[in-house]
Amino acid sequence: MHPLWDEYPVLKEELSETKKLIYNKIFIRNKQVNDAAKHIFEASGKMVRPAYALLFSRLGPDSQAERAKVVAASIEIFHNATLLHDDIVDEGAIRRGSPTIQAAYGKKAAVYAGDFLLSICFRITHPYRIELDVQGILTRAMERVIGGELHQLNQSFNEEITMRRYLTQIRGKTAELFALSCYAGAMESGMSEKDQWVSYRIGVQVGMAFQLLDDLLEYTQEESSWGKSLFQDLSNGVYTAPILFAMEKDPEFFKAQFAKESYTQEDLSLIRKVLTETKGLDAALKLAERYTDKALKLIQQLPEEESKKDIEQLTRTLLSRDV
Questions:
Q1: Cα–Cα distance measured from residue 224 to residue 217, given in angstroms and rounded to the nearest whole number
Q2: Which of 5-14, 43-52, 102-111 is predicted least confidently?
C-alpha cells in the first residue's frame, strides 16, 4: 500500500482488503484481457477514492464492513476502467511510472479490459441492490464522467476555451468520482439525506482541487517523479488551468506553442519559464486552494465522529501536495 496510509493503520488494512477483493473478482478466460485487467491493480495508485468511501461509511449508524468494502471496491474498479479508456484515447505511454495497459498489451486488450472492469462494478454491487441504490449512483456517475470526457473532446485544440468551460469539464471527468466516493460511503452508512448531500458536495470540492493540482504537477514535476507522460494534455489539445491563466498574459507565445505537433525538452523548459513569469502556475494554485478551503468548511458540517478527523486530515494532506 502507498505510504500515505501509514498514518491511518485501520484504513490501510481496509484498503488492503478492498484491493484483495478487487483482485479476486477479476477473471475472464481470455488470458491477455485477464492479465491486462489485473495488471492495472498490481501497479495500483494511492486508492484515494475508495479511501474516502470507507471513511464516510464510518460516519453513520448502519454501516456494514463487508458492504462498505464492496462499495469502495466498485468505485476503484470504475475509476481504473476510466483510466484504461483515457490512456487509449490519449495514447498515453506511462501511467503510475509504468507502461500503460494499451502500451504493454495493445489497444484491443485495453479496451476489452476496461469494458470488463465496468461489468465487475455492477456484478459485485448486485447483491446489495435492494438495500442500496449503489448501481443507480454508479450509472449516474458514469453518465457524468462520460459527459465530462466528451466536453473535453469537444474543446480539444480550442484556443478560445474559457476557464468556465474548463471547470465544467473537470467537474464531470474528475470531481464526479470524488463526489460519488463520499456520497456512496455516506449512503452506505445510513447517514441522513442532508448529510449525504453535504458529503457529495465535499467530494466535488475535493475533486476540483485535486484535478487543478494535477494540472500544476504536469508542468512542475519531472516525468520520473510525476509517473505520467509529460505534456500529454498539451499534445492532445487539452488546455488546462495553468495554460489558460498564462494565456491571458501572453497569448501570442501560447498560440505559437499550440501550432507545434510535438514538443522538445527545450520547449518544455521554455513553457515552464513562461508559466512562471506570467503567474499562470500561481493563479492555478490559488484556485485549487479556494476549492480546498470550501471542502474543509463543508467537512465541519459532518457528524462529530472519529472518522471526521481522518477525513479532514486526509483532505489537507492530499490537497497540499508539492507543486
A1: 12
A2: 102-111
What torsion, rounded to 10 degrees, do the Cα atoms 218, 220, 224, 229 define? 20
Q: What are the contacts of 119-126 at 24+ separation with CB within 8 A?
A: 120/25, 120/26, 120/74, 120/77, 121/74, 121/77, 121/78, 121/81, 123/25, 124/21, 124/25, 124/70, 124/73, 124/74, 124/77, 125/70, 125/71, 125/74
List pLDDT tens digits, range 148-184: 888 888 888 889 999 999 999 999 989 999 999 999 9
| Beta pairing class for 98-99 and 94-95 | antiparallel
Q: Looking at this protein, which amino acid is placed at residue 10?
A: V
Q: Which three cell numbers stand for residue 17?
A: 482488503
Binning the chain into helix, strand and coil, the percentages to the nearest 5 are: 75, 0, 25
305 Cα distance to chain centroid: 26
